[in-house]
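Handoff note, outgoing to incoming analyst
You'll be picking up this chain. Sequence as last confirmed:
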Amino acid sequence: MNTERLKKQLLELKKQVDDLEIAIPGSIQITYLKCGKKNCRCHQTEDQRHGPYYLWYRRVDGKTTTQSIAEEDVQSYRSWIGNREKLESLFQKIIALGADYAAAFKSTPDKFKKSLPTKRGK
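Most recent structure output, in case you need it:
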């Protein structure tokens, strides 16, 4: 590939990165829970449990962290997590493009391509 074409592809990828909004790590889990009351309906069967509760899971300093989120915020969190996935994909494409560019780039001028002398320092 020629370097001009690679530069154009890089500019397009950079524009896609620039178009992204907030990006966050993690995932959203939906859970139903039992309460502490022994006579409550939630202890009878699984389909009687309380919920749904929405939890945002992510890694912080090597540990899994959980945070409850309101039902009305779930779509925003899912969108932000999706943005992170898009961002990671775009970065991988930029890195691959950089490798192609480096391979196609002529960085050593011909005048320096002479072979080195066999005896050095004398």
